[in-house]
Design brief:
With about 200 residues, the protein is of the alpha+beta class. It has four helices and eleven strands; from the N terminus they run ααβαββββββββββα.
Length: about 200
C-alpha cells in the first residue's frame, strides 16, 4: 500500500522542503510517532483565566517538566496527545477543505482553529485565520489570540505556543524542546533514502 504524504507536507506543499530537518522529521508521521523532551507551562494567574484553562483541559503551570508527544494518523489527519508530566492534552489536526483549503484545522473539544502555516528555512509560524465553536464562526473580537512557532535548536525541535482570549489575556503559554528517539531517527532516515 502506498504511503500517504504527511499532513503538514500536504498543506505546506513545495515549501516543506525548506524546513529544518528536525521539523520535517517531527511532522513525518507514518502511523505513529512519539517524541520526548522537556518543557514548561505558564497560565493566567486570574481566577477566571485558571477556571477557563481548567474547563478546556489545559495543563497546570510548571517548569522543566518531562513532555511526551504522540502523533497518530487518524482519518486522514493526526491525533496529537501531549503528556505534560502526566497531564494529557489531546487535539485533532486535519487539512481544511473548500474555502478553508490550504489551512490546518486543529480541534479540541467544541473549538476548531483554522491556521495558516508559514513555512521557511527557520521553521514554521502559525497564523490563526478564524475559529469556530461547533459550526458557529466566532467574530474576530471574540477569537482566541494565537502566537505559535516551531524552530530547530541544536538539532532538537523547539516549540512555543501562547493562547490568549479577549478580556482575559494570556490563557496559557507553553514551550519546550523535543527530539526523536534514535530508532525513529534511523527509520525516518531509511525512509528518506528509499524515497530518493
Amino acid at each position: 500500500m502506498a504511503r500517504r504524504t504527511p499532513l503538514y507536507q500536504r498543506i505546506i506543499g513545495a515549501d516543506y522542503a525548506d524546513l529544518p530537518d528536525v521539523t520535517q522529521a517531527i511532522h513525518n508521521v507514518n502511523g505513529e510517532l512519539i517524541v520526548e523532551g522537556r518543557g514548561r507551562v505558564a497560565r493566567n494567574k486570574s481566577t477566571l483565566g485558571n477556571w477557563l484553562a481548567d474547563r478546556l483541559g489545559m495543563p497546570k503551570a510548571a517548569t522543566d517538566i518531562p513532555v511526551t508527544v504522540r502523533f497518530d494518523e487518524h482519518d486522514g489527519g493526526e491525533m496529537i496527545c501531549r503528556n505534560y508530566n502526566g497531564h494529557m492534552l489531546t487535539t485533532y489536526q486535519t487539512e481544511g477543505t473548500g474555502i478553508d483549503q490550504g489551512l490546518l484545522m486543529e480541534r479540541f473539544g467544541p473549538v476548531t482553529l483554522y491556521i495558516h502555516l508559514d513555512a521557511h528555512e527557520e521553521g514554521i509560524d502559525f497564523h490563526l485565520q478564524k475559529a469556530t465553536i461547533g459550526s458557529v464562526p466566532l467574530p474576530q473580537w471574540l477569537r482566541p489570540r494565537l502566537t505559535a512557532r516551531e524552530r530547530s535548536r541544536d538539532g532538537q525541535h523547539h516549540y512555543f505556543v501562547r493562547v490568549g482570549l479577549p478580556g482575559v489575556g494570556t490563557l496559557i503559554e507553553y514551550e519546550g524542546l523535543l527530539q526523536l528517539k534514535k530508532q525513529e531517527q534511523n527509520e525516518q532516515h531509511a525512509e528518506r533514502i528509499d524515497v530518493v
